[in-house]
């Protein structure tokens, strides 16, 4: 991770003397600083969890997951406000906004989110291994990495209309969608800071600052929309600008809170030239993390593109936008649990406690199954009423009601699969998750969706049946990978990953 100039210092430095409100609670064992000792050490004896261990781990997961879920719900409320303002402007504007958001997710937000996840195992395992200063170096590198990655994304957004017209999208919808994206360009800069800071804090068990910052941004989002859309009559441009401005307030509030209360001090070092060296471990984790996230995100957004090729594209695209907002709401809970288990697994592997990492994974998967049942019940029960929150158009309501029960069944596989991805991230195995998503979504789900939607004439619901087949396959593969994990091996890999100066080929190998 770092260059040779600081290798010796980092390997022998003592943990910072200043108390850390979360690090001090971990009661971590002394980590292995000598690779020879690590190679010659025998794995700890098998430890079977008691009922109290299960309860304690469940509490730890919920303590992390609850504020993450609350933050996601707050951000979801903000996106709902944007969709409601688009719906009030008209069906054309709603379809254009949905298409623009889909394009932004495919080419921008999913890429930045995925690349930032490369720092998650580095930060969580370093924190568990009592090397908190390494978190700051990783944060600096990740911010620079995302800022550089935003440049080609911006160029792509500037040429969005040509791409969509080439894909045979409706010209009127494309024109408004391109306008929406132009006013969303500054959001790439904001996300390049928000994502790394969020992971940097979460690896230390600090989740409440982002919740408070997101609440501030969401509270401001409604009056900003009224000002730009209703008062200044900026239309689609106003909705996009309001989302960009409110997200900037999230970043401003987050940085201010962390700085004022000194949450950064125990793990903070000033940016230096070290940030521009030693990128290999970060990039080798970021690339497959990005692929894993993008493969899943792209599936949902590609379905919007396919809707534009069906009969009555205005209604199908608008309905797909509503359904994606719905699945985003349901996704809040398993994704929050996935982030929580990623942190817990990373911390415990970094602390050389493989039995606790395994316990966290097992408990999280069990909870995710309960979440899947709850989400499926909710989607089926609300099928006739949910679409009325967004529009009164009869055709859009009919399509939404028909697809919601299928969406609910998808959640039975989506919840365990999402939590499994979290386990893979925490154990620094993002390529495993990428391979699972590639096989399930694009070798199974995509052919089924296209075959049912177009060749067999099932149409809109055929696309969702393709997603159902993908989620079932993905969940099965992910549970197999998690269940066959050698946790002692992953603990040894974590010790090497946090041992600066080691061979990166050894550090990041996911094989034996």
UniProtKB/TrEMBL annotation:
The keyword Transmembrane helix is annotated on this UniProt entry: yes
MF terms in GO: antiporter activity; transmembrane transporter activity; xenobiotic transmembrane transporter activity
Transmembrane residue ranges: 64-87, 99-119, 139-158, 206-228, 240-262, 322-341, 361-379, 434-456, 462-483
UniProt-listed GO biological process terms: xenobiotic detoxification by transmembrane export across the plasma membrane
Cellular-component GO terms for this entry: membrane
Pfam families: MatE (PF01554)
Main location: membrane
Record has Transmembrane as a keyword: yes
UniProt-listed PANTHER family: MULTIDRUG RESISTANCE PROTEIN (PTHR11206)
Similarity-based family: Belongs to the multi antimicrobial extrusion (MATE) (TC 2.A.66.1) family.
Listed name of the protein: Protein DETOXIFICATION
Organism: Manihot esculenta (Cassava)
